[in-house]
Amino acid sequence: MSHDVLLQQLETLRPSLLRFAQLQLRNPVWAEDAVQDTLVAVIERPQSFAGRAALKTWVIGILKHKIIDLLRKKGREVQVEVEPDESQDDAFDALFAADGHWASPPTHWGDPDATLERSEFFQVLELCVEKLPSQTGRVFMMREWLELETDEICKELGISTTNCWVILSRARMRLRECLELNWFGEKRVVS
Amino acid sequence: MVLAAQDRPLPLYRRVLLRLHLGICGHCANFRQQIDLIRAAIRRVDHQGRQADE
Q: Do both A106 and A26 map to the same domain?
């Protein structure tokens, strides 16, 4: 891949990189820094690639490393926003009726592989992740996108393990709700 | 327990209880499938692209 072609491809990738960085960091300045550092690293160490997809995967790999470095440096600086008073238990209990059964039984979401083939689904998913409150989104993405273990997450952000678990559960429940409303809709298919 | 299992290993007896329950409770099995999909989807997000990227 020639240098010019590489630069062109990186320009095409830049919006995605910024989007991912912002979803993770929730701070546009940090996101921009992370993407810049990534692009510099890529240009300084050119590799040969079979195709665009391979380049994208490699660049995103570097982005994740840069973001992890940034989080290690700045993790404790992130403001813990004041979230509406909602304990993990309240959010969870609301799912069930007094008799212990599901208040609104989770529907069957169909064939997961089919869902994961749809690019529109990923657009909705990204919007749902974006809608998460900052700290919730940050922790969730550190766990699921950066694939960090919970103790690493707690350490970088300076929060307790239990708090981490609560935040993650809350994130998953909100995402579930958001996807139910915005993608899977009112289908009540019994599996 | 489904949510907890995403982030930490459950003790064996809880895993057994959970599995037994999921075997008979269709609603809970749906819940579990939904939570698993969310994880699988985020893992694939890197390989997705808006039209412009591909």
A: no
Together in a domain, A101 and A177: yes
Closest partner CB to B30 (pick from A12, A106, A168): A106
- Taking an 8 Å cut-off on Cβ atoms, the answer to whether B7 and A143 are in contact is yes
Say how many domains are in chain B: 1
Band (pLDDT 50/70/90 cuts) for residue A18 is very high
- Asked if residue B7 belongs to a domain, the reply is yes
CB A129 within 8 A of CB A175: yes
Nearest to B34 among A52, A143, A176 (CB): A176
Residue type, A71: L
**Three-state DSSP class for A102?**
strand
**Which of A109-123, A166-180, B15-29 has the weakest average pLDDT?**
B15-29
A191 touches chain B (CB under 8 A): yes
Q: What is the structure's pLDDT at A86? A: 53
Q: Note whether B48 contacts A122, CB cutoff 8 Å.
A: yes
In the numeric block, the tokens 């999921």 are attached to B22
Q: What is the pLDDT of residues A29-66, one digit of tens each?
A: 999 999 999 999 998 887 777 677 888 999 999 999 99
The parent domain of residue B34 ranges over: 2-44
Beta-carbon separation of A112 and B46 below 8 A? no
A189 domain-assigned: no
The number of folded domains in chain A is 2
Q: Residue A93: which CATH number? A: 1.10.10.10
Least confident of A40-44, A75-79, A142-146: A75-79
Q: Chain B, 1-54: which have a CB under 8 Å from a chain A CB?
A: 3-4, 6-8, 26-31, 33-50, 52-54
- A92 has pLDDT over 80: no
DSSP string, A152-166: HHHHHHT--HHHHHH
- What is the Cβ-side half-sphere exposure of residue A44, based on CA atoms within 13 angstroms? 7
* Beta-carbon separation of B36 and A13 below 8 A: no
